[in-house]
């Protein structure tokens, strides 16, 4: 039973224009109690928000709880505690009957597109509409629209067995969008696809997000996927979120572990012992030239060596992590100078130094 007061608040929240997050997961816990096993806590105090027209990636190693989180968000599994609000409405309070209506707001794409092999592409896409009792004429129109959206108009009468992995996934996306959901939940949607197909599926999800104003939660273990499309990133480890934030902010945070993994720096093999080493981090608009290395040399009248660099185009900006080395310049002075160029710098700990510290 939903208390009357809570219902009122839910209704006010549902229609309020200032509710900027389409999906709000708050203090979510999931425990399992199997007869064969002891009490298992799989998710612990998960707090996660997905804004309208944005992509939040949930990244985590095997066993970290990604599938369980996905099942909780689509309410295939009931959370043990906490709330899952879609457009302001808490789904965890709803009865199974109410849930069957509200679940339509969440379209799910799975790793293997799980299509019915004996149904054509058009019939697979039409399934959710059939279950809802939509008329044949309306179904035909909607399926045509969806086929165009995912670029498969010429495959309507093919069977899944006649499609490539990427095409099957496009059918899965069309089916997930059939009921015009507000949220698209992509659960390992590109796992097992080659890099080119992965890129095309991510481009499609990105385009549909903008055109259909979707909020996307993308569950993945692939770093490349996150780099390519995520606006926000949350890292799940042993059932807890250990880091989260905007993709670019995490990369530009020198203390972020996921930032280092998203934009790693390869340490050169041989580093002269007398070099002062700085790790630098910066971003600038992709059409802006950066001449900070020249400026640095001129300022200190000393040569500077660029020893390693990883430069990526991320969220329409150039983001770089680099290692520079120089002699005869005070490192604090160098760090202060770089700051005037909006470059963050810190003294670089070589692996040899790090292992000395550890021992
Ligand atoms: N029904 C269940 N009963 C008990 N434990 C479970 C149940 N389902 C999942 N778990 C446990 O929860 C943990 C997280 O599992 P989950 O499948 O969510 O992880 P994952 O991050 O999706 O892993 P993978 O990437 O390998 O699919 C695992 O230790 C798993 O054994």
Automatic annotation (TrEMBL):
Cite a single GO BP annotation. amino acid transport
InterPro entries documented for this protein: AAA+_ATPase, ABC_transporter-like_ATP-bd, ABC_transporter-like_CS, ACT-like_dom_sf, MetN_ABC_transporter-like, NIL_domain, P-loop_NTPase
Cellular component (GO) terms are:
plasma membrane
Q: Which residues form a coiled coil?
A: none
The record's section on SUPFAM superfamilies has: ACT-like, P-loop containing nucleoside triphosphate hydrolases
Answer yes or no on keyword Cell membrane. yes
Cite the entry's keywords alphabetically.
Amino-acid transport, ATP-binding, Cell membrane, Membrane, Nucleotide-binding, Translocase, Transport
Q: How does it sit in the membrane?
A: Peripheral membrane protein
Q: Does the record's keyword annotation contain NAD? A: no
Among PANTHER family, the record links this protein to: AMINO ACID IMPORT ATP-BINDING PROTEIN, METHIONINE IMPORT ATP-BINDING PROTEIN METN
The entry's function note states: Part of the ABC transporter FtsEX involved in cellular division. Important for assembly or stability of the septal ring.
Q: Which family does it belong to?
A: Belongs to the ABC transporter superfamily.
Output this protein's name: Cell division ATP-binding protein FtsE
Which organism is the protein's source? Acinetobacter puyangensis
The organism's lineage is: Bacteria, Pseudomonadati, Pseudomonadota, Gammaproteobacteria, Moraxellales
